[in-house]
Amino acid sequence: xxxxxxxxxxxxxxxxxxxxxxxxxxxxxxxxxxxxxxxxxxxxxxxxxxxxxxxxxxxxxxxxxxxxxxxxxxxxxxxxxxxxxxxxxxxxxxxxxxxxxxxxxxxxxxxxxxxxxxxxxxxxxxxxxxxxxxxxxxxxxxxxxxxxxxxxxxxxxxxxxxxxxxxxxxxxxxxxxxxxxxxxxxxxxxxxxxxxxxxxxxxxxxxxxxxxxxxxxxxxxxxxxxxxxxxxxxxxxxxxxxxxxxxxxxxxxxxxxxxxxxxxxxxxxxxxxxxxxxxxxxxxxxxxxxxxxxxxxxxxxxxxxxxxxxxxxxxxxxxxxxxxxxxxxxxxxxxxxxxxxxxxxxxxxxxxxxxxxxxxxxxxxxxxxxxxxxxxxxxxxxxxxxxxxxxxxxxxxxxxxxxxxxxxxxxxxxxxxxxxxxxxxxxxxxxxxxxxxxxxxxxxxxxxxxxxxxxxxxxxxxxxxxxxx
Length: 469
Hints:
By secondary structure, this protein is α+β, with helices and mostly antiparallel strands. It has 20 helices and 6 strands. The protein has helices spanning 10-20, 28-48, 54-64, 81-93, 109-123, 127-146, 151-154, 159-176, 180-191, 207-227, 243-247, 283-295, 315-318, 322-326, 338-348, 358-361, 364-370, 417-432, 434-445, 454-461; strands at 70-71, 78-79, 303-311, 373-378, 388-394, 399-404. A hairpin with a 4-residue loop joins strand 5 and strand 6 (399-404). It starts with 9 loop residues before the first helix and ends in an 8-residue tail after the last helix.
């Protein structure tokens, strides 16, 4: 390793973790959590295969074609690993139902899982090798974002696009067998491709869905180039023209935070699973409102006003500007409105991936109810776990309040195995059928012990013709 003034660079220390971690060194809780990460992500991606933006993505991937290395969900043929990773990662984020780290603000598994899956299938890796790469990619991607909490998004960059590139480079490098030098080069290469803008959240266009896909494509490309000797800057994190200095516009930062405790303190399992298919900042407010309405048997007509307090860090994502969030332009735009999330849950009595459609967007009952929902930033609420406070005022003059310290799916309010199972089936069964979805769920339960990933990827491809040999 090259050495700076104080020893190895941050990229080299991350690379050492990637290249030298042994599967046997993973703690049991990390291994168990990774199984659920993969199950959750693949279920969401299967749901994403049904979404309206998916034909465009699959059409381009098919048109580009290439060496048949890795599988794409719902497609019989195989594609070069970076293209397969692009497609699957885009599908995994399309419903906005994928897990999110509340400090790094990264949808991390939608990059870690598809990148590892594509690279593992390309190289014929075992289930254990694949899963180890998922953990490595997830840990690296979260750490790159958590070193500067919420600051990428505050500067209008999508942290998933930024940090997911490093997750993919890490997972790809691990499965390609890159050493420390090659992996550090992969990080340097990946950094120059690691951006994505948040403007799409303001108009309901689809670009945010593509961000994990472009991150995985770029990260796997970086790992492949590094394997062949292509070099990247070693001080890409701490350098004066590096990632943090550039994307944070000169704000102070400490790049060393990305590697503090690495290998002994695990951040990836702290990532929050989503109970609803929309922006994470909506969930605790929606849960609080749902619980109050249910406890007091309140109908939408009974409600005069709902006030929701969330951490100030989340206001720009789902609340402000209020007029924009109260008048979503597309079904996808509704996902980034706290007002619409609460209103949809109150009026429909549910909120599923299939409820984001033109009919619901045109429903005046939901639009009218959303006008009675108000959001406030509360500086006393720490963002970890996406907490909220909710107050409902009824037309009869009653006041009901509820605090949700952490959303369902967080480490302090976890989903049960049954809830994971039901979420997976709800996402996968409409595409695969109940029997096939259950069979895939069972395969994933034993994924650490699989000698080959073919039993999993063959089910993901669906009932099409066998892949090319």
